[in-house]
TrEMBL record:
Entries under PANTHER family matching the protein: 1,3-BETA-GLUCANOSYLTRANSFERASE GAS1 (PTHR31468), 1,3-BETA-GLUCANOSYLTRANSFERASE GAS5 (PTHR31468:SF5)
InterPro entries (UniProt xref): GH (IPR017853), Glucanosyltransferase (IPR004886)
Annotated compartments: Cell membrane
Family: Belongs to the glycosyl hydrolase 72 family.
Name of the protein described by the UniProt record: 1,3-beta-glucanosyltransferase
Species per Swiss-Prot/TrEMBL record: Lophiostoma macrostomum CBS 122681
Gene Ontology CC annotation, any one: plasma membrane
Length: 401
């Protein structure tokens, strides 16, 4: 599969449009026995029927990022962050929803990836949460079924727990349907306790939304993948709902499971073989994994030195973007668009909590673009859906600025 490197490159490609490579790689997905892949960048101006049908036929779900390098929040500073939350950006996000909502094997949508990646940029939290809110409202207004929306966080020790609490506090229209984070703290040789994963399970034991790892797989030492057994054991399944291995193709960052030659052929490496063995030796969790069946919203964290968020109020959706809720977003800009960071109309007000929540409820079917008979015909939101993420693999590109 033709993929771009880690880092938000300007030559980002859509792996679902390269059918020859996708055919090749699905065979490797089958060898691993996975059921979910994550893709960071797609072209929302193109049709994805064939690629999604191929994944569907193989029993594979898609976890999809709604942003692209050109159409995303710009966290460089407070001004660029506010400026980048605009109607042009949201049109692209909503067009991505339109392009994929009808596919039965679309499992979930990410509203952002590692926008908060340090101790000093937690001010992005209200904008991330606003995008999550807007995506949920757009799905409720325009889609034929409910689609889980949540955030993929960087595991920043100083604020990761604050992030989890913040994205689960407030009114239901603002709360994420799940919380995911990218965790590289288990570096083999290690154990459930040596890695600190036991403490993380304890930290999130009362969390009322599904939690899973949106990236994992430390490369500090040889990847023996001993964390696979722990992740799908009863030590974790009552709190965590699986995870996504980072990443498929070998890139300059040192991660990767297959090498792509100049002739387009792929060669699996020892990481791939060890991962396949770890998956093969690990049984899928049975039943519901002991998940929490009910729970209330979290308490919003107070502002402090490590959480520079002074208010729980979110920016209001830009005025021009409101029309998309009624009329739809139209054709997306794709990967060749001019970008949105300094385009369009920004938000000019603070939202009243719950005031703009959608009143329509999707009827639960997915047939606009798909067959209506796929591997994920319906998804129960918000408590159960990530039990579907069993043994998973991640490929694509991370958005970093």
């Amino acid at each position: 599969m033709k993929l771009t490197i880690l880092g938000g490159a300007s030559d980002a490609a859509d792996p679902l449009l390269d059918i020859k490579s996708l055919t090749r790689d699905i065979e490797n997905f089958k060898r691993l026995g996975i059921n979910t892949i994550r893709i960071y960048t797609i072209d929302n101006s193109e049709n994805h029927d064939e690629g999604m049908r191929m994944l569907d036929d193989a029993g594979i779900y898609l976890a999809l990022d709604a942003n692209t390098p050109k159409y995303s929040l710009n966290r460089e500073n407070a001004d660029t962050l506010h400026r980048s939350y605009n109607d042009v950006y949201l049109q692209s996000v909503f067009a991505t929803i339109d392009a994929f909502a009808g596919y039965n094997n679309l499992l979930l949508l990410f509203s952002g990836n590692e926008v908060i990646n340090a101790k000093n940029n937690t001010n992005a939290a209200t904008y991330i949460k606003a995008v999550t809110r807007d995506m949920k409202n757009y799905i409720a207004s325009q889609a034929s079924r409910r689609i889980p929306v949540g955030y993929s966080a960087a595991d920043v020790a100083e604020n990761i727990e604050f992030q989890a609490l913040f994205f689960n506090c407030g009114t239901d229209d603002e709360r994420s349907d799940f919380f995911a984070f990218n965790d590289y703290s288990w570096c083999d040789p290690s154990t459930f306790t040596e890695s600190g994963w036991d403490q993380k399970v304890e930290t999130y034991s009362e969390y009322s939304k599904p939690i899973f790892l949106s990236e994992f797989g430390c490369i500090t030492n040889t990847r023996e993948w001993n964390e696979i057994e722990a992740l799908y054991s009863t030590n974790m399944t009552s709190v965590y709902s699986g995870g996504l291995v980072y990443e498929y193709t070998v890139e300059p960052n040192g991660f990767g499971l297959v090498e792509v030659g100049s002739n387009g052929q792929v060669q699996t490496n020892e990481d791939f073989d060890r991962l396949a063995s770890a998956y093969n030796a690990t049984a899928n969790p049975t039943g519901d994994g002991g998940y929490m069946e009910s729970g209330s919203a979290s308490e919003c964290p107070s502002e402090n030195e490590e959480w520079e968020v002074s208010s729980t109020l979110l920016p209001a959706i830009p005025e021009k973007a409101k029309a998309y809720m009624e009329d739809g977003a139209g054709t997306g800009p794709g990967l060749d668009g001019d970008g949105s960071h300094f385009a369009g109309e920004e938000s000019t007000a603070t939202a009243t909590q719950g005031a703009d929540a959608a009143t329509r409820t999707p009827n639960g079917s997915a047939a606009a673009n798909g067959t209506g008979e796929g591997v994920a015909a319906s998804v129960d939101v918000p408590m159960r859906f990530t039990t579907l993420i069993g043994l998973s693999l991640l490929f694509g590109m991370v958005l970093l600025f």
